[in-house]
Amino acid sequence: MNQVEILRFALRGLLANKMRSALTTLGILIGVAAVILLVAVGEGSSRSIQQNIQRLGANTLTISPSFSGGGGFGGPGGGGGGNTGPRTQARPLTLADAKALTDRAAAPSVRSVSPVVTAGSATAAYGAASHSVAQLVGTYPSYFEATNKPVEQGTYFFNDDVLAARKVIVLGRTVVEELFGTVDPVGKQVSVSGVPFTVVGVLKEAGSSGTQDADDVAVAPLPAVQQSLSGFGSLSSIVVQATGAAATTTAQAEVTAVLNQRHGVTTSPDYRILNQATLQETVSEATGTFTVLLAAVAAISLLVGGIGITNIMLVTVTERTREIGIRKAVGAPRGAILGQFLMEATLLSLVGGLLGVLVAFAGTRFAIAGIQPVLVPSSVALALGVSVGIGLFFGGYPANRAAGLRPIQALRHE
Amino acid sequence: MTAPVLQVKDLVKEYGEGDAKVRALRGVSLEVERGDYVAVMGASGSGKSTLMNILGCLDVPTSGRYLIDGADVGSLDEHRLAVLRNRRVGFVFQSFNLIPRMSALANVELPLVYGGVGQAERRARALEALERVGLAERVHHEPNQLSGGQQQRVAVARALVTAPALLLADEPTGNLDTASTRDVLRILDELSESGRTIVLITHEDDVAAHAKRVIRLVDGEIVEDRRQAPVGGPPPRRTGAAR
Prior knowledge:
The structure holds 2 protein chains of 2 kinds.
Chain A: H1 3-15, H2 18-55, E1 60-65, H3 95-101, E2 110-119, E3 122-126, E4 129-133, E5 135-139, H4 142-146, E6 151-154, H5 159-163, E7 168-171, H6 173-180, E8 189-192, E9 195-203, E10 208-209, E11 212-213, E12 217-221, H7 222-230, E13 237-242, H8 248-263, E14 271-275, H9 276-319, H10 321-329, H11 334-363, H12 377-404, H13 407-412
Chain B: E1 6-15, E2 22-32, E3 37-41, H1 48-55, E4 63-68, E5 71-72, H2 78-87, E6 89-92, H3 104-114, H4 119-132, H5 148-160, E7 166-170, H6 178-193, E8 197-202, H7 205-208, E9 213-218, E10 221-227, H8 236-242
Helix pairs in contact in B: 3-4, 3-5, 4-5, 5-6
C-alpha cells in the first residue's frame, strides 16, 4: 500500500462528488484569497501613505507657530486685527528666526533653511481662465529641494530673484492645466490676485496625498509674495532640511535650542516642529495596526472555510461508512483508511489554497479602492500553510473516526 | 495431515447488556480441514451470520478461541488483523458489497492494492479472477451496470483474487434469482474441486446440497454435523453433474 494508491483513492473519492468538493474548495479559496488580498491592500495603503510623506520632503523638519504655546491657558489671543498670529505672549516665527537657524556653529546638522509664507485663497488668472490656487507659497529656492518638488519644465527661481523680489512663479501641474490647458505656460504672465507674475517653471506631478491635491500649488520668491499678497508679517512656517536622514533628530535638537533661546522659552515652546521621520514612524505603526486588523478579519473567513471542510468530511465519512466497511473487510489497514480521508481533506484545502493564491495574484493587479495592493510573500506562504494545516487538522477528526470503525459496524451501517 | 484451516473452540458471542442481553453464540466448537466445503445452516436468529462475521475477523467473539491457519486471531492487533483479512480470508456477502462508482476490475483489484501488490501484477491477477467467474467481457462495468448475479460473481472474484486459505460466503445466493444462483454455486463447486476451502452460510437445502459437509445451527449451538462427501473428493453435486 503506497502513497500513490492512497492519493488515487482520495482523488476518486473527491471526484465522486464534484459539486460538493468544488464548494468546499471555494470556502478555502475565499479564505486564502481574502487573507492575501487584504494584507496586500493594507501593505499597499501603508506604502502609498509613506510615499506621500516622503513626497513632502525627505529629512525635513517643519517648524510652525503654535497657538497653544507660550504658557497660560485660555483661547487664542484676542490680538484683534493682526494676521493669523499666535497668542500675544507667543512670538511669531520671523525671518530673523530663519536666518538664525542657518548659523553653522549653532546648528551644524542643518543643511538648508527655507522660510515660508502661504497666502490662502489666491486667485490666479490667465486670459479668461482663472483658478483659485489652494496653496500659494512664498519661499527661498532651497524649498524645492527640501520639500521634494522638482521642476519638470522651465526652471526654478534663484536667490537673485529673491533678493530682487522679482515676480516670477513656479506652478503646480493642476494650476497649469486649469489655466493653460495644453499651452506651454513658461514665459507667460499670470495674474495672482491681480498682481502679474511671470511663469518660469512647472513642478513635476506629485499626485494627490489623501484629500489634498499636492499639484494645486504655486511657488514664488518670498519677498514677492510678501510685497503683493501676504504682507511683511510673520512666517507661516520654516522648512529645515537636515544634512542626512540620520541627522534629523540632532537637527531637531539644534533647532529647538536656537529657537528656545530666541523666543525665551522656558516651559512649553510657542512653536511646533514636525519631524518627517517621526511622522513616518507613527503612520507606519498606524497602518501596521490596520493591516493586522484586515488580516484578522480574513483569518476568520479562512477558519470558517476550515470548518466547512470538517463538515463535509464528516458527511463524507458518514455517507461512505459502508464503503469503509468493505475496504476494511478486504483488508485495508487503519493507516490506509486514515490516509485516504486525511488526503481527501488535505487535497480540498490545498487545491482551495492554491486557487486562492491565484485569485489573490490576479486581484493584486488591480487597484482596490484607489490603493494599489502590494503582495506580501510571507502572507502567501502563511495563508497556504494555514490552509493545508486546516485540512490536516479539521480533516483529522472525521478521518480518525472513519479509521476507527470496526468492519462489522461499518458494514451494518445503512 | 496439515493443520486445520479453521479451529474454533467454545465460541461465545453476546450482544447488549443486562436484561437486553442476547446470546447469539453459546459455545460453538468447530474444525474445518483444508479443501473442505462446509455449509452452515440455520433459521434466522440461529447465530449463523454472527459465526460468519467472527470467522471472517469482522467481529470479535465475547469469549473462546479462534485460529486461522494455526494463527490465534484473538492475540492479533488491529494491523495484523487487517493483514489477515487481506491475505487469508476471502469474504462474499449476501448484499454483494461492491464499492459503487468503481469498475469491476478496480473492485477486484482492491484487496491486492491493500496487500501491496504492484500495478501490473495486480491487473493480471484481477483479470484472471474475473475470467474465472466468467466476467472477462465486463471488467470495466461499474456495479450499477451489472445484474445481481454478475455483481455477486465480481464479489466472488474479489474474494478469490488474493488466493486466500479460506473463502467465506454469507448467504451468497440470498439475493439472487435461480439462474444466477446456479451460476454462483457452479463457480463455488469449481473452486472446491480445485482444492479451495469454502465455508458457506445458507438456509436453503438446495444450496446446502452442494457442500461436502453440512452443519446445522439452532439458537447459537451446533445441533447437527453431517458429512455428504469426503474432504479429498469433489463436491457432491459436481460428481452428480459429471456422471
